[in-house]
Design a protein that fits this description.
By secondary structure, this protein is α/β, with parallel strands linked by helices. It contains six helices and twelve strands. The strands form three sheets. The protein has a six-stranded mixed beta sheet with strand order 7-2-1-10-9-8. Strands 3, 4, 5 and 6 form a four-stranded antiparallel beta sheet that branches. It has a two-stranded antiparallel ribbon with strand order 11-12.
Length: 278
């Protein structure tokens, strides 16, 4: 069975399903193959947070944080049934140290060497103020100061913690978010194939032919991509693809680090997406 697509996506995580939804909404003929189930890997094992990347203010990544905060508001507004506000308490302590290699750390080390990795309370409050307002926050409550000896938030903490800041981010059911993106993509005309493994991709003339094996293990589907677009979004797929004896496509792997539609892994630094460029 053959099918024609403008875009074929390998991997049914949040990136793959999110791109499928967006592309199908723009009128492209989209196919997606996932060798397991939707959200079966990293996209169901994240911190389940919609966040704007508070730590990236230390890197002066203001544009990235602002865009992430705007996306956070959009996501909280369009899927309130699988998301909710979440409050975080940041206790203040003289022993608290921050990363030493960020631009802010290097600047403080030069201008205020006696801080030795600490942050003045006023600077932390200023950063949280920026975090509140850079994305035009409307849904989540803003940052507030806490006296931990007077507030219930201080009960589980040691008495030495006297002050804290409380700020907001968002919680989301990450696996359901992936499935909802896939369902919406399908409603817009995308073809979503689960338990379907890509075993080969090769250029034939002015198009690509992609062979897949479905759940029964016997049927191979050939997908012809008229516009020569091929995007792979799962490292596991890429590794298996390269090892497969039929993987004769000439593909270059590029590591992509960054946030993934508002959802981060348990270790954001270890999140690696592989984009296969033709």
């Amino acid at each position: 069975m053959a099918a024609d697509f403008d875009l074929f996506i390998i991997g049914g995580g949040i990136n793959g399903c999110g791109i499928a939804r967006d592309a199908a909404g723009r009128g492209l003929r989209v196919g997606l193959a996932e060798m397991g189930d939707l959200a079966s890997a990293t996209s169901s094992a994240s911190t389940k947070l919609f966040h704007g990347g508070l730590r990236y203010l230390e890197f002066l990544e203001f544009r990235l944080v602002r865009e992430a905060l705007i996306e956070r508001e959009i996501l909280l507004s369009i899927c309130p049934h699988i998301s909710r506000p979440m409050r975080f308490v940041l206790p203040l302590s003289p022993e608290m140290r921050f990363e030493s290699m960020t631009p802010v750390s290097r600047l403080l080390a030069r201008l205020m060497p006696w801080t030795k990795g600490r942050r003045p309370v006023a600077m932390i409050r200023a950063g949280l103020f920026l975090y509140d307002w850079m994305g035009w926050r409307k849904i989540l409550p803003g940052t507030r100061s806490l006296r931990l000896d007077r507030e219930p938030e201080g009960l589980p903490l040691e008495p030495r913690f006297r002050r804290a800041f409380e700020y907001s981010d968002g919680w989301v059911d990450d696996a359901r978010l992936v499935v909802l993106n896939a369902r919406d993509a399908a409603e817009k005309g995308a073809t979503i194939l689960t338990r379907t493994k890509v075993i080969s991709a090769r250029r034939v003339g002015d198009h690509w032919e992609i062979a897949t094996v479905g759940p029964d293990g016997d049927v191979e589907n050939i997908f012809v991509l008229q516009r020569k677009h091929l995007r792979g979004l799962e490292a596991a797929h890429f590794a298996e693809w390269r090892q497969h004896e039929h993987a004769d496509a000439a593909l270059a792997a590029h590591r992509i680090f960054g946030r993934r539609a508002g959802i981060t892994g348990s270790r954001a630094e270890d999140v690696q997406l592989f984009m296969l460029l033709i």
